[in-house]
Design goal:
Length: about 280
């Protein structure tokens, strides 16, 4: 039986998939694929090649580091191991054609793929939990935006979702207690968006005219002030952080919320709140 070592500086899923795709062409040939992942030091490369020499194995690798690929080449020649570099030739050709230097970051491909996948999931989550929908699932949200009508909850939620955050938004309605599920959320996850009353009344008038909504009491300055005061009281009772959105862009708000959320949870990533990005090749 032939043994193939699939060697990677990340998870090795990609190099193993390539090897198995090639093996399909050989039907039921007796081949064992052994994955070696997280290979980032010369001594790891040497240990793998020593084992490969003892088992007469073929080595297929996708090492991003030029230094590690050099060690692999030199050591495989010394030990008589058949080693195949899937990454180096492609990087060399692209370097020449693009006139750029590769980053040589282990696992970068799947980090980007994982980020895109998370962003898609977060956007789907946002649409499902917009405007108080499915409040029983608020425990799955990393950020919950609250506020009275027209305080930029939905656009801010989508900005955050596109950056991989799982966000829901719940409207605060004067005289109506917030949903019990919202009151159960940790205070550090809830952000109340607030706007100057006159500006909010103006935005509501524009919406009312466009959608033919009765102006009173929706656009009344007195009614707007009462709603905002009610929302402020809930913020004080529950310890929710309040953010003034008056005359601010969605980008500004999003970045401020991301910064505050990161500080609350001790995250190091500027964009992504979850676990470290998975690595692969």
């Amino acid at each position: 039986m032939l043994t193939v070592f699939a060697v990677s500086d990340a998870t090795g899923r990609t190099v193993e998939r390539v090897v198995r795709a090639a093996l399909v062409q050989f039907g039921d040939a007796p081949v064992r694929v052994v994955r070696h992942r997280g290979v980032r030091r010369p001594e790891q490369v040497r240990a793998i090649l020593e084992r490969a020499a003892g088992e007469n194995a073929v080595v297929v690798h996708t090492l991003a580091s030029n230094d590690l690929r050099r060690v692999m080449l030199e050591e495989s020649r010394l030990r008589g191991v058949d080693a195949m570099d899937l990454m180096g030739p492609l990087l060399d050709r692209l370097t020449h054609r693009l006139q750029l230097t590769p980053h040589e970051v282990p696992g970068l491909l799947e980090q980007l793929t994982e980020a895109r996948s998370r962003s898609i999931e977060a956007i789907e989550f946002a649409f499902r939990h917009d405007d108080g929908q499915h409040v029983d699932e608020l425990g799955q949200a990393e950020i919950v935006l609250v506020g009275v009508s027209r305080t930029m909850k939905t656009p801010t939620m989508l900005y955050l979702a596109y950056r991989g955050w799982f966000v829901a938004n719940v409207p605060l309605i004067a005289g109506v207690p917030p949903p019990a599920a919202l009151l159960e959320q940790p205070a550090e996850r809830v952000f109340c968006l607030w706007m100057a009353p006159d500006r909010l009344a103006e935005l509501r008038r524009v919406r009312a005219q466009r959608e033919r909504i009765p102006l009173d009491p929706y656009c009344s300055l007195a009614a707007v002030e009462r709603e905002l005061q009610d929302a402020e009281q809930w913020c004080r009772r529950r310890g929710w952080r309040q953010i003034n959105v008056t005359s601010r862009s969605v980008e500004e708000l999003g970045q401020e919320i991301i910064s505050m959320a990161r500080r609350s949870s001790g995250l190091a990533s500027a964009e992504r709140p979850a676990a470290e990005p998975p690595e692969t090749r």
